[in-house]
Specification:
This protein is of the alpha+beta class. Helices cover 32% and strands 23% of the residues. The protein has nine helices and 19 strands. A six-stranded mixed beta sheet has the order 4-3-2-1-5-6. A four-stranded mixed beta sheet has the order 7-8-11-19. β15 and β16 form a beta hairpin. The radius of gyration is 23 Å and the shape is elongated. The relative contact order is 0.12.
Length: 359
């Protein structure tokens, strides 16, 4: 077990007055044990008690015996895993991972009438929000590799290219750098598709005058990166240049607002104010950022509705955008680490007006 991380989780349990929890999300199990399990439809449960007791319940098909640094109880497909797990659960309140399938929860409630199940993900989620030194080093490496991969992908923006061609170029570059996959499906957008913040990369052909959004991230030793840059194919119009400049200024304002103790909603507000003051507020239609680490999206939110404050060790995105329906869009995104005195930007690719000559 990662003892320091387990102790942080237990402190969170105590703050929530939870004596016991079940952790089942693969990323959270990995966070505490150092072993990643993809359970499919089978049960995976890490039982944690505030006393420090922790036991992993897993199917023998996962071949964890001797390969996981945690007390292990195994079962096979001929056995009832809930019956095995219920022997360790104490009477009283039990925190259940928000991602644990309901059929497991319902069966456990049926087997143990003396247990009251509540959502109990917060102790692990809160611990994961503030990265330790090992995690920070991996996040830095992941982001720097992402810098390299996105530059290669930009090289695929040429006459006759499709969005999917640029996405494939990114995937090849990331794999060549040792990535084990993407943080999320790459979002490559041409022209009017850039006005859809979550446009799915398709076979749209590149045209002169297009804005091009590349929103990409890779997984490096389980840790995710995420970055967005907007470039132009052919000379941008005055409005495209004005919008690009505004978004870059909003990105810089959001990052400048980051420091320990600042409400996350104020970071959102700092980025949003730049765009609103310029008259484009209605076209900034999403939150300013999201947490990232073992998953591409994880707590916290950098939004008007998140009441939490920035804490040392948090890593989240700052990604303002302006989206003009049917025309074009611009988004510029960086990952920032909250430090003792401000923020460290993890990716190093500068924000600059990049124009790829139209052929």
């Amino acid at each position: 077990m990662k003892q320091n991380r387990l102790e942080r989780v237990i402190r969170g349990m105590e703050a929530m007055e939870l004596e016991q929890i079940i952790v089942s999300a693969p990323a959270s199990v990995f966070y505490l044990t150092g072993t990643w399990v993809r359970p499919g439809e089978r049960m995976l449960a890490l039982y944690v008690h505030k006393s420090g007791e922790a036991r992993l319940f897993a199917n023998r098909l996962f071949a964890l015996a001797g390969n996981v640094d945690a007390p292990l109880s195994e079962f096979d497909d001929t056995e009832d895993p809930i019956a095995l797990l219920s022997q360790s659960v104490r009477p009283g309140t039990l925190g259940i991972d928000k991602s644990w399938p309901s059929h497991f929860t319902l069966r456990l409630m049926e087997a143990r009438k003396d247990v009251r199940c509540v959502v109990g993900s917060a102790p692990v989620d809160d611990a994961r929000m503030c990265k330790d030194e090992e995690e920070i080093a991996l996040m830095r490496e992941s982001s720097l590799k992402n810098d390299q991969a996105i530059v290669t992908a930009m090289g695929a923006i040429r006459a006759g290219a499709k969005e999917s061609d640029v996405g494939a170029a990114y995937d090849r570059a990331a794999a060549a750098l040792g990535a084990t996959g993407n943080s999320f499906p790459s979002l490559i957008c041409f022209g009017a598709n850039c006005a859809e913040p979550h446009h799915s990369t398709d076979d749209t052909l590149l045209s002169a005058g297009d804005s091009v959004i590349l929103d990409v991230g890779l997984c490096w030793r389980r840790y995710c990166s995420d970055m967005t840059r907007t470039v132009f194919y052919g000379a941008p119009t005055d409005e495209q240049k004005r919008v690009f400049d505004l978004v870059c200024k909003a990105n810089a304002a959001g990052i400048a607002a980051v420091r320990p103790g600042v409400p996350l909603k104020d970071i959102d507000g700092a980025a949003r104010k730049v765009i609103e003051d310029a008259g484009y507020g209605q076209y900034f239609i999403h939150r300013t950022g999201h947490g990232i680490g073992l998953e591409g999206h994880e707590p916290p939110d950098v939004s008007r509705t998140d009441a939490r404050v920035a804490q040392v060790g948090m890593v989240f995105s700052v990604e303002p955008g302006i989206y003009l329906p049917g025309r074009f869009g611009v988004r510029e995104e960086d990952l920032v680490l909250v430090t003792e005195d401000g923020a460290e930007v993890l990716n190093k690719l500068p924000h600059e007006l990049r124009v790829i000559p139209a052929e």
